[in-house]
Structure formats: structure tokens, C-alpha cells
Amino acid sequence: MLESPSLISDDDLLRLISNGKEFAFLAFYKRHQAGVYRFALQMSGKPQIAEEVTQDVFMTVMRVAKQYDSKRGSAPAYLYGIARNFVLRSLERERPYTTTLEDVENENSVAGDHDLVSELTRNERIESLRKAVLALPPAYREVVVLCDLNEMDYAQAAGALGCAIGTIRSRLHRARALLMEKMRAAERCGVST
Description:
This protein has helices spanning about 10-20, 20-45, 45-65, 75-95, 115-135, 140-150, 155-160, 165-190. By secondary structure, it is mainly α.
């Protein structure tokens, strides 16, 4: 009797996927779909791109699961690396068009009685930060999304992006400095970035 898919490691699920086991793909998808979607959304700022990228990532996994090598990084890092390529391609295709940000429903709705003004101020600051992250060049945006928003360590981020840990550190340092500049400028102007 097979063990429950939730108890099977990512490495084993990928091996089973490469052998055509549908239950393994479904378990792997269920385990990682939300993270891939969140990464793509944070990188692109657009739900439709995030949905497309998520679908493309898992279609790719079905085709190339045999290529996964756990010695090169974790399964999430592997998935984020694939997602990163699809996001960058999508953004490149959209470059000629004006980028517009769409409202994303806040998953963590605030309960209780809050002062409306402070809630609006908080929402404006979150939106300013979101816009500032999206305005970063892709190389800086991806390290912020991986390390700060998805809480990957430097080694995992380096594996996902295919670069050295030192590169991750320097990009993250520069990205945080750029974000601080953008947020200070937005506060001085009283306007969102």
C-alpha cells in the first residue's frame, strides 16, 4: 500500500511525476501551487500573469520533472526558478504597454474596530510599498520577493536564481536601499510611488 501523498517528499513526488504518476502530480501541485502563484503575483503585480505563470510552471514540471536535481536546490527553489523565467518573459512581452496595477483582495482582512483614518493610512502605505517593489528592476525585485516576502534564505534564493550567494546579498542590500528611497520620497510628497 502506498503512503499518503502528504507524507512523500518533494524529491520522491518529482520522481513519481517523471514516471507518469498522476496522484504525485496532484499532491505536488496542491503542496506548491499557492507559493508559486504568490511569487508570480509579487513579481508581476498582476493576477492574470500570476495565474498564467502558475499554470505554465506546473505544465513544465510535468514535462521536465526528470531534470530536477535535489543537489542543486530545494523543490521550491526549482519551482521559483521556473516561475521567474515565465514572469520575466511575460513582463518583457508587456513592456510596450503601460503597466497598471490591479487591486488584489487583501487576504488578511483586519478584524475589530479600527479607526478608519489609520486603516486608510495603513492601506496607502502597503500600496506604496507594493508599487515600490514592482518599480524595482527585475534583478532587485526578485531577491526582495524571494528573501523578504517568501522568506527564503540566501542559499535557496541563489539556487532559484542561478547565481552566487554574494550576488543575492548585494542585490538585496541595493534593493532595500532603493525601496527606502522610494518610500521616503512617497512620504515627503504625500503621494504613492
